[in-house]
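Handover notes (outgoing to incoming on-call)

Open items:
1. enoyl-CoA hydratase: sequence verified, structure written out, both below. Nothing else pending on this one.
2. Nothing else urgent.
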Amino acid sequence: MNLTNFRFETDADGVALATWDMPGRSMNVITPEVMDDLNRIIDAVVADSAIKGCVITSGKDTFSGGADLTMLQGLGAEYARLSRERGEEEAMTFFFEESRRLTLLYRKLETCGKPFAAAVHGTCLGGAFELALACHHRVVSDDDKTRVGLPEIKVGLFPGAGGTQRVARLMQTGDALQMLFKGEQIRPLMARNMGLVHAVAPRGEIVQKAKEWLKAGGSAVAPWDQPKFKAPSGKVYSPAGMMTWPPANAIYRRETHDNYPAAKAILQAVYEGLQLPMDLALKVESRYFAKILRSPEAAAMIRTLFLSMGELNKGARRPKDVGAVPLKKVGVVGAGFMGAGIAYVSANAGLEVVLVDQSTEAAEKGKAYAHKLVSDQIMKGRAKTADRDALLSRIAASADYADLAACDLVIEAVFEDPKVKAEVIAKVEAVIGPDAVFASNTSTLPISGLAKASGRPEQFIGIHFFSPVEKMMLVEIIRGKATGERALAAALDYVRAIKKTPIVVNDARGFFANRCVGAYILEGHLMLAEGVPAAMIENAGRQAGMPVGPLSLNDEVGVDLALKIVKATKAQAGENAVNPTQERLLTALVEGEGRLGRKNRKGFYDYPEQGQKKLWPGLRDLQETRLDPDAVDFQELKQRLLVTQALEAARTFGEGVVTDPREADVGSILGFGFAPFTGGALSYIDFMGAARFVELCRTLEARHGARFSPPATLVAMAEKGGTFYGEAARQAA
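enoyl-CoA hydratase structure tokens:
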């Protein structure tokens, strides 16, 4: 048998072992060639009467991350070509049959008459887990690195190779829907308790355990192919079913606001599929999958959250001519909330950390934050006491700057005041070595201005973390005018070491993310000043696809911080650089009412010690005008909240702050939650079309003012029929 991606052997007991080990790849992925090999293996097992069954395992450190999504992108391109050349009907027939090829292959395995078992170690996600689900028996390792799951929803898709149908027949319907909607990675014991796998064993025993099941006469018939099979939750049209489906539909609408076609397709595929025998159910799933695969939401999310993010994580923006920068010890100056978080993620990555503050007591308090974070993980069973002890041993709390002498990278996270930061820069540079890189975690202050306090600006760079550091996956790296290539390489190497996603931006006030976030919050403030009910503003933000409304977001970052930024901007850039309406609102809240945000339980919301937060009733008294809710165009509110952010992103691109649309899109989703179904702030414009977006801006400009005026670079792009990605590709060519 001629196989490229598998090794195949049969033992003396007649049990075959197919070891998936793709040459030249660090991880197995599903490709057309892998499908061809798997088809040959099934045929060989069936044809040989001496073979009792087959175990499928991996020859790599992990099982597989699933399908190669570039394969799915290519399918879309082929559909477009056939549609142009041969017509829509023939193109759609081709697309449907090709998109269900994996489904038919897995069903062939499942019904071939010989038992198959999966022996899984490490990551087994998406199409790879669907392969395991099609096997008649599943054994997973008890290793902490082992995870199974169906995360397709996170890139705008859903499990289209039988996942929706098999999971819904293994678990209670409500649990199955929750798993499919969340797309979470599941640990071994939890997977067994959920009924997704049959056994958990030590890594070295999983293949043997799978073989033992086969030798003991393991059944080659899946549960749902048994004549008397009943779904765990019973029939859809039953009292139990009616307790599940109406709430499920309501939860779907509440959580997605109908922005995610894939989530709706999951609901429909499971609902319809559970009423049919498996083969018809799989066909229903395939039809929905083909439809979703052609949706703009899937195209946008796959491009940004899979392809672009993968490229950035692998160093797409790293200077090619700079070798690896040694990073063994990291210094963090400032042990407050941000500094403590930076120290934790650094130590968690295995780096030695020196955490410095004005007093040893303050530094120890910052170190205690790491203790709390790991303790919380221990309570949840995700870490051991030894892990906490090892991590804490890597953090040295100090009040002496001299302890930073051996650091390869020092990150300051002190108060957002140029004078304070200048003092820290001088103290740090007095003790660190000539090759050490200095980074500022400023969120708004221009890096080039801060670098004036440095004696070696080529080694000075911005590394902007988002709060809370341990949870937020984006890091914004800011190049000052004098920042050198080695400093950039060091910053990117550091971000990769702590397993976060970097974007590189050029220096400007607010950089990229905070400019867009600022525009979102500003629009919420101006809506409130116009007389729009606060609840309506917040609901518009969430229904537009944002994680929280603009007023809630302002509370999280601090209403007082927003006022400080406005005042600092006004002092440094002049009165025309700030919106007077926003300044009046923030001044009234902070200085007039003492409402600082979530930090003091009083902001746009009230935060009682018991119970949920509620909008502060006093907001109505700050509105000079109060609009009738029925007279407000709710769709326009949603448009304003997205357009203002996308427009600011377009300005940063036109100004050269962001130079790569991949970074703008990935940064907007990971950094501030810009409606993920759009693919990001610039994809929002690209998929709408620049001409249509400019027209929308003109309409909003006429109604609401010059802040919606599109920049000349965007107008020119619209006139040419161009896109941000097309422009970037042209410049790179």
